[in-house]
Amino acid sequence: MPEAGPQLKQSSGGGFADASVDSGLISYLQKNNTGETYLFGTTDATTAGPYIIKTKEAVMALGGFNGTDPTLTVKQLKQMIKSGEIKYFYLPSNSKASDSDVVKWIQENGTEIDQSEWSSSTSTDDDTTSSASQNTNGGAPGMNGSGEGTLYQLK
To answer: What does residue 100 show for φ and ψ, rounded to 5 degrees?
Structure first.
């Protein structure tokens, strides 16, 4: 049965607060942010959520909770890029939204940023953890599965 409340912060497995983030991705995005509304966009809330919690910054979850909701058109995304709302998009390798028109446009028109420039082999679980856990899968882990993905700069 679904539940909510402060006890979930103490639980393990399943909560956004328990998911790790790639500290290298956060560092890269914050360093290269030029005033955009969103730190970055991604395909789903399960990937975005841990980054929102860790950074306290806006992250756009393009396809809703699991990445399959058609929440944005290519035309709308182009307008957001033009108006300076978003500059980066992280595409998890296991995304259910990989066939969407928006994701296809990002892959065809975005500039892929080499993973060595932004990925860290260290990921952190939360602000109270003194030693970071290892992200053994590479890339930004979030909660969406494999932890591998591609970062694009949008123009």
So the answer is: -75, 155
Instruction: State the Cα–Cα distance between residues 99 and 137, nearest whole angstrom.
Output: 23
Q: How far apart are the first and last CA of the chain?
A: 44
pLDDT at 17: 55
Q: Are 26 and 54 in contact (CB under 8 A)?
A: yes
Q: Which of 137, 151, 133, 149 is nearest to 20 (CA)?
A: 133
Look up residue 78 and give its two tokens: 């182009």
pTM over 0.85: no
Distance CA 86, CA 81 (A): 5
For position 135, what pLDDT does the model report?
Answer: 39
Whether residue 63 contacts residue 47, with contact meaning beta carbons closer than 8 Å, is answered with no
Parallel/antiparallel/unpaired status of strands 122-124 and 40-42: unpaired
| Total residue count of the chain as it appears in this document | 155
